[in-house]
Amino acid sequence: MAHQITTRADNFAEMAYTGETPWHGLGQKLEENAPIEQWITSAGMDYTVRKTKIQYYADRAENDLRVDPDFVALVRSDNGERLGIVGEDYQIVQPFEVLEFFRDLVKDAGFKLHTAGTLFGGKRYWALAQLEGATIAGWDKVGGYYLLSTTADGTRATEGRETTVRVVCNNTLSMALSHDLTAHGFRLSHRERFEADKILQKQLGLAQEHFHKFMEAANGLSKIKCSLAGADEFLMKLLASKPVEGLDDEANPRRPKGIDSILALFEGAGRGAEQKGSKGTMWGLLNSVTEYVDHFATAKTLDHRLDRAMWGTGDRLKTEAFMQALELV
């Protein structure tokens, strides 16, 4: 695929969104108050994942047909595509359950669904909802969100976490103000049952408070000046402690190649980089890191870049950059 969204045979993209059209131009636009049922259909999350037995021939002549006693295949109900092979005790979280998680939050707590969809043919699916928004330096809009994602191939757990989105460049960054990420979300293995009510009570009560603290920190970073030499030093330290796939420079291993691209974004090429509170500040440098990871870092496909930026090594790099920047506040 040339993009990160699952696309069906009839060219239907499994994604729904509100507001501005995403950069890839795919998906179905919905009204802000669209019902959950419409989100499920428009995001292409109206299929179910089911277990099916795995059969195999144990002999070369293909006479001895057996059933695997320990593993099953997970398949899509609509097209029969195999999503993964897992143990018999694997607990499936259905695509529609990811959106149902937000039903009461939208109805009673003021959340607004923002995007939802699937990746890698339906092996991963997610929903993102906004809980609040604020502005830095009078123009830089940042929204506080909650992201829920899971997989149907056994590769990753069900995960919910607080995150932020910078509107000007659609960068994402964890809301966590420390390395204790458990206070800002949850991770549930597929050996455990997904019980949304218990998770909501335990995890979401402090989300608004966490966003306010994040904005205080972000405003602090927007007031800390950072020179080009200081930015170079910060990035060398960051990438030495958190190397990420796609940033290594084989010709000069002492200087990761991503540094020069990030510095170019910091010097003015980044979106909003010339604006007050961003130009020549730690907030601007932090967003240069996140913009590079989210939009420019080398990846096999854009599917893999999004996956890495939201859940993989790129996400960890952005979080580490935030933690190191906070040491200066």
Order of helices and strands: EEHEEEHHEEEEEEHHHHHHH
The whole-angstrom Rg is: 21 Å
Residue fraction in strands: 15-25%
- The poorly predicted ranges are none
Q: How many β-strands, per DSSP?
A: 11
Oligomer: single chain
Count of alpha and pi helical runs:
10
Biggest beta sheet summary: 8 strands, mixed
Helix content: 25-40%
Q: End-to-end distance, in Å?
A: 42 Å
**Which overall shape is indicated by the principal axes computed on the Cα atoms?**
globular
Q: Which class best fits the helix and strand makeup?
A: alpha+beta
Mean pLDDT: 88
Can you describe this structure in just a few lines?
It contains 10 helices and 11 strands. By secondary structure, the protein is α+β, with helices and mostly antiparallel strands.
